[in-house]
Amino acid sequence: MKNQGVLSIAHKGKATDKLQKLPKPPVYLTDEGKSHFKKWGQLLIKHNLLKAQHLAALEILANAMGEFEWSLREIKRKNEKQMGDGYIQTFQSGASQVSAEITLKEKAEKKIMQCLKQFGMDPRSEKELAAEDNSGQLSMLEAFEQKLNSHTS
To answer: Among 53, 105, 52, 107, which residue's Cα sits nearest to residue 74?
Structure first.
């Protein structure tokens, strides 16, 4: 069964169009998002990891980093007024729930981690991306397909 609700932006393929220059950040990003776009983009280019098809993931990462930082600042600000207010939202009726800032922070964290996987910044995806870039060798599936095709020709 497929994971529902999981952000899936990972690119699988053999594209080799690695960017050497970062385009301008999209105008719809906040100033904070634009700053993250530039910072992360330059870092990814420096390590030869940014491809043209990754720009959407970079935009998501930049925006999520801005949301994450904003939510942390808001949680801190509310907790400085009254400890716990940054974590729990209490309504006039007396009902309470997790604060909107906590929810935003958690969603931003998930997006950030998903984007970092896109760029090979976790052990599993790092291994997968290294295998994709190894143009001198075939994957086991490709070797099997070639062997199968050679027998049917």
So the answer is: 105
Phi-psi region of 91 (alpha: psi -120 to 50; beta: other; left: phi over 0): beta
Pairing of strands 88-90, 96-98: antiparallel
Compute the residue count for the chain.
153
Residue type at 120?
A: G
The torsion angle over the Cα atoms of residues 72, 11, 143 and 147, rounded to 10 degrees, is 150
Report the share of the chain in percent with pLDDT over 90: 58
Given a cut of 80, is residue 147 above it in pLDDT?
no
The pLDDT of residue 122 is: 73
pTM above 0.90, yes or no: no
Nearest 5°: the CA angle 2, 4, 98 is 150
Residue 3, classified by CB atoms within 10 Å of its CB into exposed (0-12), middle (13-18) or buried (19+), is exposed
- The answer to whether residues 115 and 60 touch, using CB atoms and an 8 Å cutoff, is yes
18: helix, coil or strand?
strand
Cα maximum dimension of the chain: 76
The three-class DSSP label of residue 128 is helix
For 32, half-sphere exposure in the C-beta direction (CA atoms, 13 angstrom radius) is 10
